[in-house]
Amino acid sequence: MTYRTARGRAIGLASSIALIGALVIAGSASQAATPTTALPIQEHHFWDALELKPSPGDTWARLRDNLAWQERAHDERVQRWIEHYRANPHNVVEITERARPWMAWIIAQVEARGLPGEIALIPFVESSFDPKARSHRGAAGLWQFMPGTGDALGLRRQRGYDGRLDVVAATRAALDYIELQAEQWYEGDLELSLAAYNAGAGTVNRARHAAGSRGEPTDYWHLRLPNETMQYVPKLHAIAAIIAEPEAHGVELPDIEDTPAFAKIPVDRPLDLGQLASQAGVSRSELAALNPALSNGSAHPSTSEVVLVPAEYEEVVLARLNTPTTEPSPGGAEQHLVQRGDSLSSIASRYGISVAELRQHNGLNGDVIQEGETLEVPRRSLASR
Fold first, then answer.
1. Is 305 a catalytic residue?
2. Which of 87, 99, 201, 342 could cysteine-pair with 103, CB 3.0–4.6 Å?
3. 281: burial class by Cβ within 10 Å (0-12, 13-18, 19+)?
4. Which domain, by its residues, includes 382?
């Protein structure tokens, strides 16, 4: 049985055609960084210490309720990958542990769209659930978007922000992309869309045309595709089969509550993660781990819709943000949001400092700045304005 999308897209025909064209030009959306089990074991993150106690409706139970492709577990290619993962159970455990802060939320997004639960496991195959993963081909993030594909899907890249590393934005883009391809080209066939996610729609469409010309079936399982793509969907089915029955496969999954480990804080003004951490009593390393897209440690409305914080800190963070304060910012600096027409010279003149000081304080090698970027102005000079 082939699972097909049942939800109509709200994207207009003209915009769909334009997006499809851009994605074809961009090429493959993702290429797995390396084989999943070859990824190095990463250091433990802050969420490893979270006291998340299992509940009757834990994350894995919810995921099992949404699995829809279990009949594929008997396919020969899937069986080979099941045996591979069974021989390396520590890798499965490490990767699922790394998924702790993201798993419940991603499952909820997949469930809300009526998609099979297996889709929530794509980051397992793509990035081993490392939100900062980068492949030698240029793909990045949990969902391993190539630059051109990310651009076509609205995942902006500019100084201090890479939308492909933004778990919230990239998850939305990945699910949109998978559904859009399935509905535009494959009559809702999600397995073909997943193959296109890995190899590019052009590769899959050419393989289908060739199969049809030979009088052969044109579903995923009968196509002649690049080896990585031939193994891509079986890998996904294999890990789903193991999660469906972990004990039978010798795997002990970490307990993860069926509630998101993070909360989304709207970005309606420039936010410095260090300042936010100091005001709310959150570790800066925690905020950095939850917001890997913010490489310069700050967020502003022109790039980021939300900043993620540990769920238990949501109320205190919102309270701090809504409380006026005249306290100086940590590090003795004031923030300046770059506006259209700004230059380093004009900003330095406005605050009564030198261009050299402004460059040094912000780690700039030249004079190029971008609208929407946040610069720090040394506070020691502010009194002289």
1. no
2. 99
3. exposed
4. 331-385
